[in-house]
């Protein structure tokens, strides 16, 4: 809803693309910590991508569909907008506070909201939600970072259960930074260790939103600063996903078969001297005392589509190219 209301504004007010990138961009040294009032280091990491090393507490992922699994020891109910009451259970490995944190979390509430929204699968009464089993929780400081649960959803016509295992991590942002120098367009990438896939990945600067999910553009700007040392301005940011049809929610879902993550993709374009490109490439960033090891890469934009496996980058390329073709982007020449 927020992005739908912001989309006309973004289309009416084309971003300013400064003649000299350095006029609107500052670099920060490696040891600098982003100042965010009362938000401490752990909260900083809480917004970051799933594989970053953080101070978290992980609890068991025992599923109740295993013949050897112990019966759930936690139980609660939630009432849907239809008035139907749904049973919520928790794995025995969860503590009472973890179970309560899970069902009270913004992640779980947003998932229920999506299920019952205008395009939700429960809205047209073709599907029914019978129960939810909370299997695991990852706490980021005092808040819930990730959830894993199993939802028993049935097709009302056939009576068959549909796949319902959910890894919940909520909203994220990523930024496509294109820098023109000497007649060549370059893109700024980060190289990070990605434990879930067991390899280093070249990807766009990105990160997770806080629980309230209200400051999407601000989060995008902060992530760029933390991961690359580049400071951008709100007026220069273009929300590429705002160009999508409003019926889509103006976000992309990279893995909807198992994860609820929804991503807003932004664009920044600017002009720099070649010395800036050289200074950026190979720069080491990240909160290293928290195990966050990031190396900045700068590559020609024309080669990006076949040098990265990052779905965020590939989706951003597609949206950027189509927006250019449709004349939705202002010229970056002046």
Question: What is the topology?
Answer:
Blueprint: H1 2-12, H2 41-46, E1 56-58, E2 74-79, E3 85-90, H3 96-104, H4 106-116, E4 127-140, E5 143-155, E6 161-162, E7 165-168, E8 171-181, E9 184-194, E10 199-203, E11 206-208, H5 216-228, E12 238-239, E13 262-271, H6 274-280, E14 284-285, E15 294-300, H7 301-304, H8 311-325
Spans of 5+ residues with little confidence (pLDDT < 50)? 1-24, 27-67
Q: What is the overall number of helices? A: 8
Distance between the termini: 33 Å
Q: Structural class of the secondary structure composition?
A: alpha+beta
As a whole number of angstroms, the C-alpha radius of gyration is 21 Å
Question: What would you call the shape?
Answer: globular
> What share of the residues does DSSP label as strand, in percent?
25-35%
Superfamily at the CATH H level of the largest domain?
A: Nucleoside Triphosphate Pyrophosphohydrolase
Name the average pLDDT: 82
In N-to-C order, the SSE pattern is: HHEEEHHEEEEEEEEHEEHEEHH
The overall number of domains is: 2
Number of strands: 15
Helix content: 10-25%
Largest sheet: 8 strands, mixed
- Report the CATH topology name of the largest domain: Nucleoside Triphosphate Pyrophosphohydrolase
What is the CATH top level name of the largest domain?
Alpha Beta
CATH architecture of the largest domain: Alpha-Beta Complex
